[in-house]
Amino acid sequence: MVTYAAVDLLDEIAYLAAVLHWPLDTLLDLEHADRARFVAAARALVEGAEDEGARS
């Protein structure tokens, strides 16, 4: 059985909490694959906003 590194889990949870403002219990209830999708989507949103800001 492979376990997900606690540091990686905490990094993902912290990132999603900061970007999406979801409560901890909601974030911890996410399955790994779902959490990874939300991290990717949130990063795309943040990067898109940063790109827009750089162009202004």
TL;DR?
80% of the residues lie in helices and 0% in strands.
Report on this model:
The chain is mainly alpha-helical and 56 residues long. The protein has one domain (6-55). It is built from three helices and no strands. The termini are far apart.
Which structural class matches the secondary elements? mainly alpha
Major β-sheet annotation:
none
Residue-averaged pLDDT:
89
Question: How many strands appear in the DSSP assignment?
Answer: 0
- Low-confidence segments, given as residue ranges, are none
Share in helix: over 70%
Number of domains: 1
How far apart are the termini? 49 Å
Q: Radius of gyration in whole Å, from Cα?
A: 13 Å
- Number of helical stretches of at least 4 residues: 3
Shape: elongated
Residue fraction in strands? under 5%
